[in-house]
């Protein structure tokens, strides 16, 4: 093995040591850890929440500027490049890689919260028709265009560097483009920060998955949710996504994403046909139209002149923080799907296709939740407050024929959906732990396994120490440093796009800086 393929010890070991300290603290001081993360949730949201919202607005604008400008004509990989993946596999991997457990946990419980406890900024009365439209449209927006814009603009940045400029799949070239030769000196530090932050980020998503699967098991078998149940589930999930990761993108992830998407579609069609179809269609259409009228208003909700309102901290800030955290590393993974397509094609499909699926999903399940609550068929709000948000979907599914079968299928989808997100993240983290890997190289399996185990341990500790609020607090911790990196990635994509566009074949070969 040459030096370029050896472990980057200065990036890997400091991050692992810091994660080890965090894990030890969680094991021996679970209650203290929960209290600290809860304090951080509201403290950071109050002080830097506006920053995350501003980043989200700018990224949305810049992503479409990149697509619709002359840079959109750039062919990723050059004029002779052809796609490595079919369009179906590309869309399913992008969809599943982005949503993880989010669409199945937060987006399922979210509409009832926004319906019954809307923010002051919404200017609507709780439980009203206007609150319903706000709730569905807000949830639609939070799980669609903003997150996929963040992932996609980062993917284009890495795709141009690796396929058009023949650079390694790493943050060094991004930093060099953004801040000059000094960027290469900071590469190891950035890789260490990313490894630490992303292990924590994936653990957040896995944490809510553990809670929801535990609720599903309780609904099916009557076995109460507990730390033992969460531990067993964590072991199974880690084994599943690590096995997928080790098998490589062309085998495990491609097949798992396709299967998961088919399960999603099956559940969606079943619920749409047997549920209140007309109600969901009406409310979904009105909510989508309202969304189109107020996209940036929905991107920036704070508690200006309403200091007692914590809605923004509980919801939108932690969402934008989580998407910021995932963006650079998911972008690194998604760049592998961009080869052979123009920048414009890649951005529009990678943003709009998953977004439309998420919007339809929320229209159906959000509409169903509102219908059950307002007709008195089932008191979803009371159930959420007594048993937790993770139980919301199972209350809903139990109202359908063959509810238990539907719940089993849904629990399976949680396992596979999370795996389709954790797989590429673990692979990308393993990649930046090794010197000089190209976009076509696979990192050593033992590094992928280490990353998977660490994510699982932290996820369990987050849930065991404080549940949802611990998860939200963790997002704010890891989100702030990664936001700076995201800004540098965006700077690099425009600078490198200008270089590639100036060449007839869109290929730019540069000597590495000394």
From TrEMBL:
<keyword id="KW-0472">Membrane</keyword>
<feature type="transmembrane region" description="Helical">
    <location>
        <begin position="449"/>
        <end position="468"/>
    </location>
</feature>
<comment type="similarity">
    <text>Belongs to the BCCT transporter (TC 2.A.15) family.</text>
</comment>
<dbReference type="InterPro" id="IPR000060">
    <property type="entry name" value="BCCT_transptr"/>
</dbReference>
<keyword id="KW-0812">Transmembrane</keyword>
<feature type="transmembrane region" description="Helical">
    <location>
        <begin position="256"/>
        <end position="275"/>
    </location>
</feature>
<feature type="transmembrane region" description="Helical">
    <location>
        <begin position="392"/>
        <end position="415"/>
    </location>
</feature>
<feature type="transmembrane region" description="Helical">
    <location>
        <begin position="48"/>
        <end position="68"/>
    </location>
</feature>
<keyword id="KW-0813">Transport</keyword>
<feature type="transmembrane region" description="Helical">
    <location>
        <begin position="474"/>
        <end position="494"/>
    </location>
</feature>
<protein>
    <submittedName>
        <fullName>BCCT family transporter</fullName>
    </submittedName>
</protein>
<feature type="transmembrane region" description="Helical">
    <location>
        <begin position="186"/>
        <end position="208"/>
    </location>
</feature>
<feature type="transmembrane region" description="Helical">
    <location>
        <begin position="315"/>
        <end position="334"/>
    </location>
</feature>
<keyword id="KW-1003">Cell membrane</keyword>
<feature type="transmembrane region" description="Helical">
    <location>
        <begin position="228"/>
        <end position="249"/>
    </location>
</feature>
<feature type="transmembrane region" description="Helical">
    <location>
        <begin position="12"/>
        <end position="28"/>
    </location>
</feature>
<feature type="transmembrane region" description="Helical">
    <location>
        <begin position="346"/>
        <end position="372"/>
    </location>
</feature>
<feature type="transmembrane region" description="Helical">
    <location>
        <begin position="88"/>
        <end position="108"/>
    </location>
</feature>
<dbReference type="Pfam" id="PF02028">
    <property type="entry name" value="BCCT"/>
</dbReference>
<keyword id="KW-1133">Transmembrane helix</keyword>
């Amino acid at each position: 093995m040459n030096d370029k393929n050896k472990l980057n010890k200065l990036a890997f070991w400091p991050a692992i040591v810091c994660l080890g300290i965090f894990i030890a603290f969680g094991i021996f001081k679970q209650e203290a850890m929960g209290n600290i993360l809860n304090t951080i949730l509201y403290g950071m949201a109050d002080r830097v929440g506006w920053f995350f919202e501003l980043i989200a607005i700018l990224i949305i604008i810049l992503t479409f500027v990149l697509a619709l400008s002359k840079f959109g004509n750039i062919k990723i990989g050059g004029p002779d490049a052809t796609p490595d993946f079919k369009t179906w596999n590309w869309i399913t991997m992008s969809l599943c890689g982005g949503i993880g457990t989010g669409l199945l946990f937060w987006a399922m419980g979210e509409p009832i919260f926004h319906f019954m406890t809307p923010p002051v900024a919404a200017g609507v009365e709780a439980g009203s028709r206007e609150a319903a439209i706000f709730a569905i449209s807000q949830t639609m927006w939070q799980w669609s265009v903003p997150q996929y814009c963040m992932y996609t603009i980062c993917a284009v940045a890495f795709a141009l560097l690796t396929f058009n400029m023949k650079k390694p799949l790493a943050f060094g070239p991004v930093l060099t483009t953004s801040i000059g030769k000094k960027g290469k000196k900071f590469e190891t530090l950035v890789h260490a920060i990313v490894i630490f932050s992303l292990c924590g980020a994936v653990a957040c998503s896995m944490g809510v998955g553990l809670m929801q699967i535990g609720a599903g098991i309780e609904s099916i078998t009557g076995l109460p949710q507990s730390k033992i149940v969460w531990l067993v589930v964590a072991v199974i999930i880690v084994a599943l996504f690590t096995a997928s990761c080790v098998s490589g993108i062309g085998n495990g992830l491609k097949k798992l994403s396709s299967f998961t998407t088919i399960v999603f579609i099956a559940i969606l069609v079943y619920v749409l046909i047997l549920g209140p179809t007309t109600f969901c269609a009406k409310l979904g259409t009105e909510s989508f139209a309202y969304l189109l009228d107020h996209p940036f208003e929905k991107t920036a909700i704070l508690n200006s002149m309403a200091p007692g309102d914590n809605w923004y901290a509980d919801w939108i800030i932690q969402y934008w923080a989580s998407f910021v955290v995932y963006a650079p590393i998911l972008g690194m993974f998604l760049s592998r799907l961009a080869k052979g397509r123009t920048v414009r094609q890649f951005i529009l499909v990678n943003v709009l296709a998953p977004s439309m699926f998420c919007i339809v999903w929320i229209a159906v399940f959000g509409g169903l939740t509102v219908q059950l609550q307002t007709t008195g068929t089932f008191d979803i709000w009371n159930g959420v407050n007594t048993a937790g948000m993770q139980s919301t979907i199972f209350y809903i599914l139990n109202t359908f024929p063959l509810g238990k079968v539907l719940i089993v299928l849904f629990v399976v989808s949680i396992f596979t959906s999370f795996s389709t997100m954790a797989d590429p993240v673990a692979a990308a983290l393993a990649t930046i732990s090794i010197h000089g890997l190209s976009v076509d190289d696979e990192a050593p399996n033992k590094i992928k396994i280490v990353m998977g185990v660490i994510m699982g341990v932290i996820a369990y500790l987050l849930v065991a120490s404080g549940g949802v609020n611990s998860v939200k607090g963790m997002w704010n911790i890891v989100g702030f440093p990664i936001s700076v990196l995201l800004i540098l990635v965006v700077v690099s994509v425009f600078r490198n796009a200008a270089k590639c566009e100036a060449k007839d074949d869109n290929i730019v070969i540069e000597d590495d800086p000394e």
